[in-house]
Each structure stands twice: as C-alpha cells, then as structure tokens.
Amino acid sequence: MHLRCATLLTVASLAPVSERTDRPPFVVNPTGETVANANLTALVHDVGVETFEDLHAWSVNQVDDFWQRVIGELSIEFETPPMTMRGSPDVTDPDWLPGAMFNIVASCLDHDDDAMAIITFDSGVAKTIRVDELRALVAGFAAGFASRFERGDRVAIVMPMNLHAVVAYLGIIAAGGVVVSVADSFAPDEIRVRCGITEPVAVVTQDEAKRLERVLPMYAKCVEAGAKQAIVVSTRPGVTLRDGDVWWDDFVVPGAPFHPVMQSAGSHTNVLFSSGTTSEPKAIPWTQTTPLKAAMDGRYHHDIHPGDVVAWPTNLGWMMGPWLIYASLLNGAAMALYDDAPTTRGFVEFVEHVGVTMLGVVPSIVSSWRGNGVLTEGDWSSVRVLSSTGEASNPDDYSWLMQTAGQIPVVEYCGGTEIGGGYMAGTVVHPSVPSRFATPTLGLDLVILDEQGRESDVGEVFLVPPSIGLSTELLNQDHDAVYYRGTPKWNKQLRRHGDQLRRFPDGSLQALGRADDTMNIGGIKVASADLEAAIGSIEGVAELAAIASSPATGGPDRLVVFIVPKHGAILDTDRLASMMQERISARLNPLFKVHDVVTVDALPRTASHKVMRRVLRSDYRQ
Asked: Which of 494, 513, 532 is the last residue of a domain?
C-alpha cells in the first residue's frame, strides 16, 4: 500500500470511556507545518486574536467586519462598491451589500490567464483548461444566451458535472440569467416538476451520458419532461433533435468578448431544490452573495489555496456542484472533473494522475472503496485534505479511510442548500475525528435545544442569523413559515434547520438525523410524502409509511418502509421491496435505495390522524 500524505500526521489512540465522552479509536492530529500554512492561522494573526475559539466568537459578534474581510480576501470585483455591509437591521433579511453592482463570474475568472481552472480526465488522458480558455468559453455561451434570451430568464441544466456543464453554469450567470439546477439522475417526472416550478426558457443537456459502461439518456429525458427548448451537447453522431432545439456548437458564439452583466447583490443567479415536509420540493434561489459563503467555507474550513486542485464527485443538481465551482475558482484553485462513477479504480488513478490536493467524498463512496478494495495501491501524496458531506458518515469507514489513505485528515461538513454551504465543519487546525464536526462554521452560530426549549447537549439545532449564504426567500413556499415562524424564544432570533445534534464535552458535534419527516437518503434530502407517493398503491397493502433510520454504529440513513397488510393478505416483503425499488427508481430517483420492508398491524398516529414517524424510527432502532 503506497497511499500516503506528503505531510505525515500523528495518530492519537484514545481509550473508550463512554458514549458521551469517547472519541473513535483513530484520530489524526494536525502537524505544526499544517497549522503554520493554514489559511485559518493567517486569519487568526491578521484579526489579532489568540485562538480559533476567539476567531469564531469575533466572526459572529462582528459579523459585518468578518464578511468585509472575507470579501477582501476573495478579491471580489465591484463595478459599484456597496454602501455598507447590510442595508437592514432585520437579521432574517439583512439586504447584504446594498448599492453594489457586480457579477460574481467576473471574480471567478480574474486570475492569472495561465493558471489552471479545470482539469478533465478521459480515457486516461488529462486535459487542462486555463483561466483564459475558460473565460473565452464562458463568454461564448453568454453571447449565445444574450442573442436568444432576456436578462433574468431561467435556463435549466440537466447533465453530468463536466466541462460543458461548468461553462453553461458560468455563462448563464455572466449573461444575467438564472440557472435552474436539476440532478442528472432524476426521472422525467421529477425534471417536469422542477421545470414547472421555475418555468425555464430552455434546458442545457447532452444527448447521452455513460456511467459504469451504461448509456444513460439525457436529451430524451428532457424531451419527455416537456422542456421548451434544448441546447444539446453532442457525444455521438446519429441523434436527431426536435424542431427548435439546437446543438451546443450552434448556440455558442466563438470569439465573443467577456463582458459580464452587472447586477445587484440580491439578484438571483441559481435556483436549487431541497425537499421539505410537503410533496413539492422547495425552490431556493441563490443570489450573488451566496457564492461568498461557499468560497469562505472552502478557504477557511477546507484550506483551499491558490493553485490547489479540488475534486468532489457531484453534479449541479446538488448544492455541492455550484459550491465546487465557487470554492475553487474564487480561491484561485482548479476543479478536477471526473465524468464517471467515483467508486472505481479509475477514479483513484484520476486523483493520483491530476494531483488532487483537496478531495471531497460522500460516505457511500467510502463504504464502496472499503468493500471493493480499489484503494489497495496508488499514491495520493498530493492530497492534503479530505472532506465529507451529504449524509452521516460511518466512524469505522472513516477511521479506515484515514489510515488507508495515509493519515489524511477528513473535514466533516454539514449544511444545506438554503445555507449556501455548511453550518458546522472541521478544520485542518483541529484534530480530525471520524464522524465528528469540530465547530460551527465561521460567521454562523448555533444553539441546541431540548423538547422543552432549553439549551442542551442533545436536541434540535437552531441557527443564529444573520450570515451571508442564508436564504431569504423561497419561490413556492412561505420562507418565514418554513424557517422562522414558531421557533423557540431565545435571546436572539433563531432559524429552524431541522437536524438533531449531540455536543461532546470537547465542543465537537455529532449529527443524529432529521428532526422532522424530511429524510437524507444517499446524500439527497427527500420528503416521506414524496417516497410514499412514488411507491403508490400496492395490491394487498392497506397503508404504508417511509422513514429513514441510521445504523446503531453510525453512518448514512437507510430507507425503511412500514406496511400494514389488508385483512387476510399474505405478503412477500422481499418481492415488495423489489417492486418499491422499481417504482422509486422510475418515478423519483434511482439513488434512493430501499433497505428494508417491515410489516406492522397498524401505523402509530396522533389524535389528528398524522402518522408518527418518530415512533416508527424509534421502534425500528430497537
């Protein structure tokens, strides 16, 4: 085994004490060199505080000063500078950067022309796209947008996270348009729902995609979903387009000048989706300020430096797709894009070949690596930092990962689409403890309250606004009702997020799952109602309810369906699980996997007849 980190880290083995105080047996501590070179260390010195705890306190108590420093560190370009940091004292709607006119894409592409911006990898061959080359590609797409659409028009992107997807994303925003992010794995019905909410004038896609040697339709799904117009990347000859659709090469304008449209800070740039407790996904607009949150988290919590190479298997339908673009480019780093499954030996070789320095994963990838043995050889000496998000990580898997990869620290990262990044994370200056978050993120504070509304070490987390990145509106729901109305009384306004946390004596945090009926399956939030609707009616089943259950040892939530048989029906739960899986894959998302089907006599209900899924979760754990 040759996987190792160029900076060797020390390992601390801690003896078990109790569930509340014990750390997992494998911990990676930062070296003096790591701490000395960290972006956080420089910030501590510049601000003039002594410790990280002092820095975090300053970042939330002097929030305007903190974000002003972040903007300066990121070298954000303004045509018209802001009059002040906040135009309103209302922490739920602060009106960030009033009076400012700028386009965030300009700051993404204002680095040295010869610097790396994107690295792609195909058939064992790496290709580097420089900043000036990416700027030209973005200008060409923006000119195509301007010749056909109006400023403020929405254009959906439904395709894998590749060079064309990034160019389209930046080009739409540079032209003053709004990206509608739709996961490439979604079935046509789910694409239709999201396009119905946002009404895009067009969709950017490709004729087909390949994954694990399987050919996946992209253009055909968009047509079936009723896309108004499609801009299609060609990957093979022989595909015929509908009347009105256009090939990518005919849409873009080669040689167009790069003149991003200047807009206000609050202008929408992107609409992403996150399931709530209703059957319709929440449509969350990102503004020109949201990228500042993503880039700040990348800079200080993931320690991204100019010249770094950042890889994170993702797509634009998940917030980590836009996050990757901004966290990389606004920090002067390059994105490494791998257009196939990250669970294969090919991905491991890709990380080595292109010299990835910051690698993001999700727990299901790590579990697969551990099971299939693809990390048995290789050289990851370029990798300084690993990060994990999307779902709860398994402590055993992550102890294995840090040891196998050569004592590389894992920065655990938890947040949401409506945050623009994380609300708790690790850092490279804290010990890296599997499945633990070292701290709330800079610029954000949180409180944990029990069921009586008292501060506790175990309970529901509430965020303390304001912070750049926090959403202030929803396109299809009442934002105040979702995030603020009915929150517990506190000495400050609290914002609802919906996670359950545990705080340990050393201040580190552990995620305990969702407080409501929204689930996190395979790194994607989905409502119980969505899954139950996708399953539909089944012969012999009177009622059903879907829950997410985390393993007793920790790790990603698993989808469990409880069923109540009709009187006299004899049901084969294995056959039912297979049937449910087929329907969920076809109607909702193939990434949602049915783990178990459980037969019960009746579903527990409240006096108002609502299903008490928390009781089902508790019963299943027991």
From this structure: 513
